[in-house]
Amino acid sequence: MFLNSIDDLYIVQELDSRYYGFLNLTDPKNNGIKDLIQQSITILQDEVASSHSINMSKQRDLQHANVKCDVAVKYEEHIKENSGIESHACDSKLALPSDFKPKGNIGVGEVDIETYCKLGHLHLLLTEYYEALSAYQKYMRLCPKYWNNHSFLYGLGIVYFEFRCFKWSIKLFQELLYLNPYFVCANEIHLRLGLMLKVNGDFRSALKHFQLALADSSPSTFSDLQVKFQIAHLYEVQNKHKAAKESYEFILNDKNISLDLKADIYRQLGWMYHCVECLGEKKERESKALRFLQKSIEAEPKCGQSLYLLGRCYAGVNKVHDAFLAYRNSVEKSEGNADTWCSIGKINQRMHYKHTYAQYN
């Protein structure tokens, strides 16, 4: 690998999957590192391509040598048959070199196996997940003891997580924690395990991993409040609505809460008040639902999901026009989804019936 300076080489050598999420390459101030990573990928890919070309050339030479060998054997057999003289060897011009090796598999060549692992790390940092997966899998096939490379296991687990291949991601992360419980990114692993296990319905294990992530004081790409939000949502999906409500409200009282998280919590509370009967009388619940969803939109005006849910709440209290406006704004903010368009259709139908009824009365 040839880079501009020793410092550049040192930086590239240090970069691996452990920097994922910590090194923000979309930030203009990191453009230098981003360019360095892209340059390094180009150099490594050139090395791999060059090695592949050399191997292909060696393979052609071996095939050509094997053809020569076949010709030599046939020539020797012909001499035996026609002269009766035993020949002890082929003609010297047809003889193979003493170090010749018979047909066989061509090795990796001059490329170090670790090159593929490094390519996987660099592609991962650029969020080029398909390229990272290809490089990591190549490394795994060629390295007989890949499980000793913990940054590799972590990187491949992240790639599977991003592709929502939760079965494989969970397996890799659990193996890594078994091999190295004190891995530097263990808290990142616990959080992702909690998220995946929550999706899979293993709520008890999910809660355990969320609590372990919360207890870990190592540097993290997520805040304690974000972990607490996931725990509150875990209560919600288990229909433990009162515990979820109390947890959400506890987070809202924290002065360090971000606007994004505030918007998420108000949206969850609003929809809970709309749907969950045990949280109070219907009229009071609908009023709170509308208020919380409006607060969610104030905190994050471009959130199409909150606007859609607000439309649903307006439709539930028969405020058809307000519901239509909320749905329309949702489509403008997020291009909508099947549920939004279906709800718009229902609202249009209700507005049509209401207009028709007014005409005939």
- Helix and strand content put the structural class at mainly alpha
User: Residue ranges: pLDDT <50 for 5 or more in a row?
Assistant: 85-108, 352-361
Helix content: over 70%
Rg (C-alpha, Å)? 32 Å
**Terminal CA distance:** 84 Å
GO molecular function, one term: chromatin DNA binding
Subcellular location: Nucleus
Keywords: Nucleus, TPR repeat
InterPro entries: Corepressor-Demethylase, TPR-like_helical_dom_sf, TPR_rpt
What would you say about this model in short?
This protein is mainly α.
Describe the structure.
With 361 residues, the chain is mainly α. Among the domains are: 1-82 and 109-143, no CATH class; 241-301, no CATH class; 303-361, Serine Threonine Protein Phosphatase 5, Tetratricopeptide repeat, CATH 1.25.40. It has 15 helices and no strands.
Topology:
Elements: H1 6-14, H2 31-83, H3 114-125, H4 129-142, H5 150-162, H6 166-179, H7 186-200, H8 203-215, H9 224-237, H10 241-252, H11 259-275, H12 282-299, H13 304-316, H14 320-334, H15 338-359
Helix pairs in contact: 2-3, 3-4, 3-5, 4-5, 5-6, 6-7, 7-8, 8-9, 9-10, 10-11, 11-12, 12-13, 13-14, 14-15
TPR repeats: 113-146
Subcellular location: Nucleus
Family: Belongs to the UTX family.
Annotation keywords:
Serine Threonine Protein Phosphatase 5, Tetratricopeptide repeat; single chain; mainly alpha; 361 residues; disordered C terminus
